[in-house]
Amino acid sequence: MDIFLWIIIIACFVLSFVGLIYPIIPSVVLIWLGVVLYYFFISATVSWWSWGTFILLTIVLFLTDYLANLYFVERSGGTKWGIRAATVGVIVGCFVFPPFGILVVPFLLVLVTELVQRKTLKDALKVALGTFIAFLSGTFAKAVFQLVMIIVFLVDVFLN
Question: Residue 47 has what DSSP assignment?
Fold first, then answer.
């Protein structure tokens, strides 16, 4: 039974990284699911230090993702409609021309949205590029935090 549970835990961790490309997959929730499965069904030996680290990194992960998007889009002169278009673009992009759609669709939607709001092509391209950079930087940060969470879990499990 433990082997089957470990397979599920590992699958949760792997799928959490797939969620970086398909944001519809709840990456951090899958990491938590893997840890909770271990805790309740294999061994209740996850330390309080690890739980605290998971909570802190989860909060930092969400804040980093939000602030990276906000920073790059606002810095490039994006409007609230541009930010909304980027969000819709990421969701739609998951299904259109995967995995490249997640990069292309938000870029194009933001570009069109900013042009509709009477921005020059140069300014609209700047905002669309800012959105693209925001997505990449947020995704990179999430990947790092997710990897750290998994490493903390594995160190806790195998060194205790």
Answer: -
